[in-house]
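Encode chain A's predicted structure.
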Amino acid sequence: MKYMNTRQKEILYLLLSEPDDYLVVQDFADRVQCSEKTIRNDLKAIEDYLNEYSQAQLIRKPGLGVYLHIEDQERAWLSQQLHTEHFHSRQRTDEERMLHIAYDLLMNLKPVSAKEMAAQHFVNRSSIKKDLCAVEVWLKRFDLTLVSKQRLGLKVEGNEKNKRKALARLADLIDNTESTSQFIKSKFLSYEVDFVTKEIKSLQKKHSLYFTDETFESLLLHTLLMIRRIKMKQPVSVSPRELEAVKKKKEYQWTSACLQRLEPVFALRFPEVEAVYLTLHILGGKVRYPLQHKQTNDHENAVLPKVVRHLINRVSELKMLDFHKDQDLINGLNIHLNTVLQRLSYDLSVSNPMLHDIKKMYPYLFHLIIDVLEDINQTFDLYIPEEEAAYLTLHFQAAIERLHQSSETHKKAIIVCHMGIGMSQLLRTKIERKCHQIAVAACIAKADLKDY
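Encoded structure for chain A:
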């Protein structure tokens, strides 16, 4: 990540405001009141910034001066970026500042000093140090280390896969998924975000994949970040065993075809290992609806039926309720736990924005499932985290609600929910129980509402 100070941003503003017109170094020096030598150093910093973020070129011609060669669409985007950075950085909340610092540290290939960060965010160094402490603790969750290099600054050290994992999970740092998603998208041109979005939608439609809105957004961010990291020459690594296993799957062929359509737009080639990396995220993505049985056979985990059976048996026993005949619960658990096992086998992380709420709403059931999962983890040599325990709590809570619901129904309704099957079913049973005159005909994703 290349930083620009306030003076350098002002110089870039001048270049953007003088399309295809040469400006001499003395013009810049007079406008920003500094020496010509400083301007020449600033122009080098601006050039580095443009090389990383833009297709624009800084053209220097002896006797004429300097001008910026840039397309109109990109000029508008870059102007907007500078406007946002320059005029709103002073009003950033502590959370927003921390988000920017974490992103910059993860994306930067060279050390950055606390002094530079303080200047960029218009705060004192003690505020930056406080932010860095929080970021350092958060980075440890991804096996990443914030290293201080004497007289150089700070740098994040760790493998590329963990860096990308942390970048995709920036929301956990400030507990705001939506603003984090918008923040990462803002680092790209709008048509680039739109094109990747369209391709992932096309992939879903063509191959009858039903990702939750949360998974769709995650895949979009992973793809955008992958593009940026490839351009920065920061390749991800995948084990040879994993590489060969994934390449045999049909999802790999789908992903490769999708990435080939992105290549001309982003002017790059996606290496085989990157296609495998994205395929892993597709395989581990949460889906909303059951796929056809014939479609799930080839990638269903062999241990899945045993885990589902063990889970239902133990929760039935501890709750003293019989869940074995609830087909909605069984289907929901099979779909959810299949993706959980995929994520665990490919070392993919999961976030649950409702974790704390679920703990508060259903503390007894949550802790009961945590106990059952501890037994399952030991029996099957797994590590199912508490984020997944919270999702499973929703599945069982929905089943408990169904046991008590009335069969008296009149009006039909559909539930539109951006979360997974567990939350949708819980909403369904709560509505049908509280409002006896309503029968919920279906639970659909927000993205599917238009076509329903």
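The first strand starts at residue 57 and ends at 61.
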